[in-house]
């Protein structure tokens, strides 16, 4: 009840950012980069343990873009030169040029590495097929559905590999779902393929968007828990869930990851009180709205410390352990 966790990414330390830049320029060999990523992963596990979080993450120290990372490790993709997105962000976009196939585990080694560093459960984390499809170019499949379904079959193998490695929690990120409400049925169809027969607790994170259009249909996603950004709208989304009850577990975002301001313990307890108007306490896992990679290390630590304190006090006040 009211377990605490995070959505996935943590800020990368400056030393790792420098190592990644050097590696890109060919000035650092891959083994040295891996060493830097491992050190940063050990540090982020230690940080989460010191904060007292219940379910840990590996912090995604080895990833750049969340779609490109998986495309680089699946068969059938090539990666475009730098493409400019909104504003001044540049990224490399995956291009499907051959049928997509899963050849070998992508994240399992990182999952194992992180899990060996702690007795607390570490979440397995992947990017979902709908988002992979939406964020890639397709030169192989006849339409978006065929492309997404091929990705779903490939990613199902990764989820199976994570479960076989011992992951008790597996999160399939689908930030794109809320941006394309007209394709919610495709997102549901592909999630069914990804999680079929998986014995772990399955979670999907969806970024903030047009939930009026996809709710309650999104409750059809084949996962145990849907993780949502709620703090950035001051819990306005709860009105939707008052109309039609939320039938899954909720990953309850209580920290606005786009704000430098550190939420106070009282503010977070206020969000938890509001959440109890529509969710049962047994339905709730508490976390930040989204990944923390855009915050400074100090901001991330301060926000999470207040989150853990707020949950501890809140549970004490209600007599829940
Ligand atoms: Zn998000």
Features:
single chain, 321 residues, alpha/beta, seven-stranded parallel beta sheet, three-stranded mixed beta sheet, 41% helix, 17% strand, binds zinc ion
User: Helix- and strand-based class?
Assistant: alpha/beta
The number of helical elements comes to: 11
Rg estimate, integer Å: 19 Å
Strand segment count: 10
Q: N-to-C SSE series? A: EHHHEEHEHEHEHEHEHEHEH
Assembly category: single chain
Spatial strand sequence of the major β-sheet: 1-10-9-8-7-6-4
Strand content: 15-25%
Q: How far is it from the N-terminal to the C-terminal residue, by CA?
A: 8 Å
Concise structural overview:
With 321 residues, the protein is α/β, with parallel strands linked by helices. 41% of the residues lie in helices and 17% in strands. The mean pLDDT is 96.
Structure description:
The chain has 321 residues and is α/β, with parallel strands linked by helices. The chain is 41% helix and 17% strand. It contains eleven helices and ten strands. A seven-stranded parallel sheet has the order 1-10-9-8-7-6-4. The radius of gyration is 19 Å and the shape is globular. The model has no long low-confidence stretch (mean pLDDT 96).
């Amino acid at each position: 009840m009211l377990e605490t966790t995070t959505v996935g990414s943590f800020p990368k330390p400056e030393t790792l950012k420098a190592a990644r830049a050097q590696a890109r320029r060919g000035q650092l060999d891959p083994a040295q980069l891996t060493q830097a990523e491992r050190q940063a992963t050990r540090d982020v596990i230690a940080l989460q343990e010191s904060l007292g979080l219940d379910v840990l993450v590996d912090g995604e120290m080895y990833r750049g873009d969340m779609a490109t990372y998986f495309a680089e490790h699946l068969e059938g993709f090539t990666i475009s030169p730098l493409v400019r997105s909104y504003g001044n962000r540049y990224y490399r976009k995956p291009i499907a040029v051959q049928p997509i196939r899963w050849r070998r585990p992508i994240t399992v080694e990182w999952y194992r590495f992180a899990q060996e560093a702690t007795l607390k459960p570490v979440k397995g984390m992947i990017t979902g097929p709908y988002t992979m499809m939406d964020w890639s170019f397709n030169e192989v499949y006849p339409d978006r559905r065929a492309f997404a379904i091929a990705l779903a079959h490939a990613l199902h193998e990764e989820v199976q590999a994570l479960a076989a490695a011992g992951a008790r929690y597996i999160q399939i990120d689908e930030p794109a779902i809320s941006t394309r409400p007209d394709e919610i049925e495709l997102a549901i169809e592909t999630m069914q393929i990804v999680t079929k027969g998986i014995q772990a607790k399955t979670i999907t994170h969806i970024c903030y968007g047009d939930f009026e259009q996809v709710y309650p249909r999104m409750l059809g996603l084949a996962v145990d828990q849907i993780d949502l950004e709620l703090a950035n709208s001051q819990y306005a989304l709860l009105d939707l869930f008052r109309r039609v009850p939320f039938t899954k577990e909720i990953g309850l975002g209580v920290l606005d990851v786009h704000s430098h301001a550190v939420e106070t313990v009282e503010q977070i307890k206020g969000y938890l009180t509001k959440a109890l108007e529509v969710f049962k306490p047994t339905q709730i896992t508490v976390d930040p709205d989204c990944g923390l990679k855009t915050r400074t290390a100090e901001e991330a630590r301060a926000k999470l410390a207040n989150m853990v304190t707020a949950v501890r006090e809140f549970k004490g006040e209600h007599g829940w352990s």
